[in-house]
Write a structure and sequence with these properties.
Blueprint lengths: L2 H17 L5 H22 L6 H15 L8 H24 L13 E15 L9 E12 L1 H4 L10 H10 L16 E2 L11 E7 L10 H9 L3 E6 L7 E2 L5 E2 L10 H31 L10 E11 L1 H12 L5 E5 L16 E6 H4 L17 H10 L5 E6 L10 H4 L1 H4 L5 H20 L17 E3 L15
Length: about 475
C-alpha cells in the first residue's frame, strides 16, 4: 500500500473507535475534517483506485454517522456491528492493495534514458478484412521508444502505463477492467518531447508484437531495458487481434474473437491467416521506418535507424508473428519468440536468421509423452511445427525453458500482482529473466557482442535451461550454415 492509503485506513479506524465513545461537537468536526482531508489528499496525490473501495465506503458511512448522529446511547449490539464493519472494510482494502499493489518498475540497466512517441499508420496497399466498412485500409497504432540522453530527459514528466493495458489484462484473465484502472497512475521511465541521443550515429531497430488480446505496452520492462542499451524499439498494436486499439480520432477497434471450428485443422488454417496479416503488418512497419530514415515527418528518426541491424520479438501470437515474419521478410536479421506458435510458411521453409525460442516450464510439461493435462496454449500441431523450425534452420537456434514460468510470465503481470503471478520468485526476478535473455540475444546478433548468457546455464537464472536437441549454435560464424 502507498503511504496515504495506509494513513487513510488508519484514520478511518481511529474515527470509528472515537464514534463508540460519543465524541463532543468539536471532536466530531475534527473527525470530519480528517476523513475529508486525507481522502482528498489520497485522491489528488496518489489517485483513487478500485482496491481502496472498501475504505471509501467506510469513509462515507462514517461521515453519515457523524452528521446524522442518534441521541440515544448505542447498544452493545450496535457497537459490535460497527466494529466488525470497520475491521472488515479496512481489512478488505489492505487485502486488495496487497493483492494488486501500486508497484514500482525495475530500473533499466543501460546508459540511456528513454523517449517515445506514438503514431497511426495506414497501409494503403491492403484492405482491412474485418472492418464493417468495405474498402477500409489496414490501420495500425505504434509506439516508438528510442534512446535519449539523461540530461535531456531530466525534469521531463514521466509517462504512465496507459489505460489500454488494463483492458488487455481484463480480456486475458476475465477480470473486470476497473480492477486495473489504477495502472495509469504507475510511472514508467519514459518521457516525451526530446530528441534521439547523439551518442551513436544510429541504432539497431527492434519490432515488438504483443499477444492476442494484449497491447503493445504489455512488456514495458523488456522494452525499457532494450532501449536503455541503445535500441530503437517499435511496439505494434494489431487491430482485431490485439486488445482495444484506440486511434487519435477517438475511433476504437476492440478485440474480435474468432469463430468456433469443428476441427483443429480449420482452427489451424484460421491462425495461419491471422498470423499472416500480422507478419504483413510487421513488414509494413519496416517499410515505414525505411521511409522515415530518409525523411521523418516527426523530425526525430531521420538517419538514426540502422536498417542493416533489424530484429523482431513477440509474445504468444506475437511470437508466432515473429517466426512468420522471419520466414517471409529477409530484411529482419534475428527473431525471438516468447512462447509463440508456428503458423504459416515458417513451418515449411528453413529460417535463415538466428532464432531464439523461450518456453515456460508449465507449457513444456504439455509436450511430455506421458502428459495427461495440456496447457491451454498447447495445440496438437505445435510439436511437429516446432521440430521442423528448430531442426531445419540454416542459422543459430536457441530453445530455452524457464521453470516456474507460465504463459503470461513473459509480460509484466508478475509486477501487477506478485501474489497471483510471480509463482515462487520475486516479480523483479521474473521480469529480469525475460529482459536479460532478450537483450543478450539481440546484443549477440545485432551488435556482434559475445554473450555468456547464451552459452549455457547461468547461476543468475537457475530456472532457465537450454534444450540440447533444439539449441544449435556456431558462435564463431553466426551466419547461414
Amino acid at each position: 500500500m502507498r503511504i496515504l492509503e495506509w494513513i487513510l485506513v488508519l484514520v478511518t479506524v481511529v474515527v470509528a473507535i472515537l464514534m463508540l465513545v460519543r465524541p463532543r461537537r468539536g471532536m466530531r468536526m475534527v473527525m470530519i475534517s480528517a476523513l475529508v482531508l486525507f481522502t482528498a489528499l489520497h485522491g489528488v496525490i496518489e489517485q483513487f483506485r478500485v482496491q481502496m473501495l472498501p475504505t471509501y465506503l467506510l469513509v462515507l458511512v462514517l461521515l453519515v454517522m457523524i452528521v446524522v448522529r442518534q441521541k440515544n446511547h448505542r447498544s452493545w449490539i450496535k457497537a459490535t456491528v460497527a466494529s466488525i464493519m470497520v475491521l472488515v472494510l479496512s481489512a478488505g482494502s489492505v487485502a486488495l492493495t496487497w493483492l494488486l499493489p501500486a508497484f514500482t518498475m525495475p530500473e533499466p540497466t543501460g546508459p540511456y534514458a528513454i523517449g517515445t512517441f506514438q503514431q497511426q499508420l495506414v497501409d494503403e496497399s491492403r484492405e482491412e478484412t474485418k472492418s464493417p466498412e468495405p474498402g477500409d485500409k489496414r490501420e495500425l497504432m505504434i509506439n516508438v521508444w528510442y534512446p535519449v540522453d539523461h540530461e535531456a530527459a531530466k525534469g521531463l514528466p514521466l509517462e504512465h502505463y496507459p489505460a489500454e493495458l488494463g483492458e488487455a489484462i481484463s480480456l486475458v484473465f476475465g477480470i473486470p477492467p476497473q480492477v486495473f484502472s489504477y495502472l495509469d497512475t504507475i510511472p514508467t521511465h519514459v518521457v516525451t518531447g526530446t530528441k534521439v541521443s547523439a551518442a551513436e550515429s544510429n541504432y539497431p531497430v527492434l519490432l515488438f508484437s504483443p499477444g492476442v488480446r494484449s497491447a503493445r505496452f504489455q512488456s514495458m520492462t523488456a522494452i525499457e531495458e532494450l532501449v536503455s542499451h541503445g535500441y530503437i524499439v517499435v511496439g505494434i498494436d494489431h487491430p482485431y487481434t490485439s486488445a482495444q486499439v484506440t486511434f487519435p480520432d477517438g475511433n476504437v477497434v476492440a478485440y474480435e474473437a474468432g469463430p468456433e471450428f469443428g476441427t483443429s485443422e480449420e482452427l489451424y488454417q484460421y491462425n495461419v491467416q491471422g498470423v499472416g496479416i500480422r507478419a504483413a503488418d510487421a513488414s509494413f512497419v519496416l517499410d515505414t521506418l525505411t521511409l522515415w530514415n530518409s525523411h521523418d515527418p516527426n523530425g526525430l528518426l531521420e538517419g538514426k535507424l540502422n536498417l542493416d541491424r533489424v530484429g523482431i520479438f513477440g509474445h504468444s501470437y506475437g511470437g508466432a508473428t515473429t517466426a512468420e515474419t522471419l520466414a517471409q521478410d529477409d530484411r529482419f536479421n534475428a527473431g525471438l519468440s516468447l512462447e509463440g506458435g508456428f503458423w504459416g510458411e515458417v513451418s515449411k521453409v528453413s529460417l535463415k536468421q538466428p532464432f531464439m525460442y523461450i518456453m515456460s516450464g508449465e507449457t513444456a510439461k504439455s509436450l511430455e509423452p506421458d502428459a495427461t493435462e495440456k496447457d491451454n496454449v498447447f495445440y496438437s500441431e505445435f510439436e511437429p511445427d516446432l521440430n521442423h523450425v528448430m531442426t531445419h534452420s540454416l542459422n543459430d537456434t536457441y530453445y530455452l525453458t524457464v521453470d516456474g514460468f507460465f504463459h503470461q510470465s513473459f509480460t509484466d503481470i508478475s509486477l501487477i500482482s506478485p501474489e497471483m503471478f510471480a509463482r515462487g520468485m520475486t516479480p523483479e526476478h521474473n521480469v529480469d529473466i525475460t529482459r536479460s535473455y532478450t537483450l543478450a540475444f539481440f546484443d549477440r546478433y545485432l551488435k556482434g557482442e559475445k554473450q555468456t548468457l547464451l552459452e549455457g546455464r547461468s547461476d543468475r537464472f537457475p530456472e532457465a535451461a537450454y534444450d540440447t536437441k533444439y539449441t544449435n549454435i556456431d558462435n564463431d560464424q553466426g551466419k547461414q550454415r
